[in-house]
Amino acid sequence: MSSPASLVTRAVDAFYWCRLEGVVSRQLFRYAFCGGMNLALDAVWYFVIYHFLIGEGRMIDLGFVYMSAPIASLFLVFPITFFTGFWLNRNVAFRASPLGTRTQLLRYALSVAGAILLNYLCMKLFVEVVGIWPTPAKLATSLLSAAYSFLAARYFTFRGAIED
User: Fold this and answer.
1) In the chain, what are the domain boundaries?
2) Half-sphere exposure of 64 toward its Cβ, with a 13 Å CA cutoff?
3) How far apart are CA 116 and CA 121, in angstroms?
4) Phi, psi (rounded to 5 degrees) for 158
5) Quick check: helix, strand or coil at residue 153?
6) Is the pTM of this model over 0.85?
7) What is the DSSP letter of 19?
8) pLDDT (tens digit, 9 = 90+) per residue, 106-140?
9) Which of left, alpha, beta for 55 (phi over 0: left; psi -120 to 50: alpha)?
10) Do residues 23 and 103 make contact, with C-beta atoms less than 8 angstroms apart?
């Protein structure tokens, strides 16, 4: 019987066509596909938590701060997609890294924190300093963040992973 990781990897690889080989490496394709899967999962969990668990339009009293339902939902979804993103990257996109799981998880947390900081700084720069409209600024920021995240995963978080 196959492991869940090998089943997911085979499913992802089914979408990798031979024509892509010269343009996009299999590892980059797996990374992008897993990122898309995690993004879709994030949207589904956010919808469920916002509409059915917390309830639309409510304010959540945490004792020291009030939080709106959309922001509370965001905070509840983050750990779910953090760990699914880690699992997908570790077991599908960057398999066979010589680093231990604990080291990879710590490095993944650092790279995610770096991506959040990069998003914040780029949006501040593009919108408030340069004067770019928010939507194109967000698109540019997302592209920069995706490139940063891939490079951080490949050369820091899962360094030494075998590309197959």
Assistant:
1) 1-93, 97-164
2) 0
3) 9
4) -115, 35
5) helix
6) yes
7) G
8) 999 999 999 999 999 999 999 999 999 999 999 99
9) left
10) no
> 């965001």: which residue's tokens?
74
For residues 49 and 163, the model is more confident at 49
Cβ–Cβ < 8 Å for 145, 119? yes
- What is the three-class DSSP state of 99? coil
Q: Is the pLDDT of residue 8 over 90?
A: yes
Neighbours of 127 (CB within 10 A): 17
Residue 141 CB partners (closer than 8 Å, separation 6+): 118, 119, 122, 123, 126
* Side-chain-facing half-sphere of 48: CA atoms under 13 Å: 9
The model's pLDDT over 34-92, given as tens digits with 9 standing for 90+, comes to 999 999 999 999 999 989 998 877 888 888 888 888 888 888 999 999 999 999 999 99
Q: What is the rounded distance in angstroms from the CA atom of residue 133 to the CA atom of residue 140?
A: 11
